[in-house]
């Protein structure tokens, strides 16, 4: 007979948390192919119980993004001339965190709407780095877009390498070239 302290009465909602959901998703293997049914099984709850906490895969990715962006963003923001080393630190943290979760970079590289504050937080921090470098707001925004799409695309390519007999450049070479080209300048403008 089952212990009454460990059994749930019928119909009682599963006792899980957002943290447990994220932990189970992060340890599940390829996040891009993880189904909600598989996640529910990992959490030992019904499919319906999971949907009480997470409405769909997009919301699941938003929860995972919150955790990963918390791990990526340095506690201190960029300061003056230190914007390039700060951006390099952020890019390396993205490299380490995103590639540690198979399927994550692939998923976020696809066009979709992020509904979390997490990408807004990283966007604001990176734009601040570029404004600290002396850029006008519009060019800082353009530089953010170049930075994030370049880094995420490189990471997604690592998860899905093309069999062309060529390898992507090492991350340190890629990042060095990217950061030397940033911030964005108007065409024809002279570089500092």
From TrEMBL:
Keywords: DNA-binding, Transcription, Transcription regulation
Keyword hit for Electron transport: no
Gene3D superfamilies tied to this protein: Tetracycline Repressor, domain 2 (1.10.357.10)
Name the record gives this protein: TetR/AcrR family transcriptional regulator
Signal peptide: none
Keyword DNA-binding in record: yes
SUPFAM superfamilies: Homeodomain-like (SSF46689), Tetracyclin repressor-like, C-terminal domain (SSF48498)
Coiled-coil segments on the chain, per record: none
């Amino acid at each position: 007979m089952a212990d009454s302290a460990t059994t749930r009465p019928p119909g009682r909602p599963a006792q899980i948390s957002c943290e447990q959901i994220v932990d189970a998703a992060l340890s599940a293997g390829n996040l891009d192919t993880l189904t909600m049914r598989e996640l529910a099984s990992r959490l030992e709850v019904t499919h319906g119980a999971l949907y009480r906490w997470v409405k769909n895969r997009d919301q699941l990715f938003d929860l995972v993004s919150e955790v990963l962006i918390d791990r990526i963003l340095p506690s201190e923001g960029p300061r003056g001339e230190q914007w390039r080393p700060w951006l390099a630190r952020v890019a390396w943290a993205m490299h380490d965190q995103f590639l540690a979760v198979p399927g994550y970079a692939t998923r976020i590289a696809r066009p979709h709407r992020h509904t979390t504050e997490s990408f807004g937080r990283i966007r604001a921090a990176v734009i601040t780095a570029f404004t600290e470098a002396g850029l006008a707001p519009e060019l800082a925004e353009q530089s953010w877009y170049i930075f994030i799409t370049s880094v995420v695309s490189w990471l997604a390519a690592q998860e899905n390498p093309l069999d062309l007999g060529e390898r992507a450049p090492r991350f340190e070479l890629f990042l060095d070239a990217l950061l030397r080209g940033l911030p964005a300048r108007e065409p024809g403008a002279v570089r500092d």
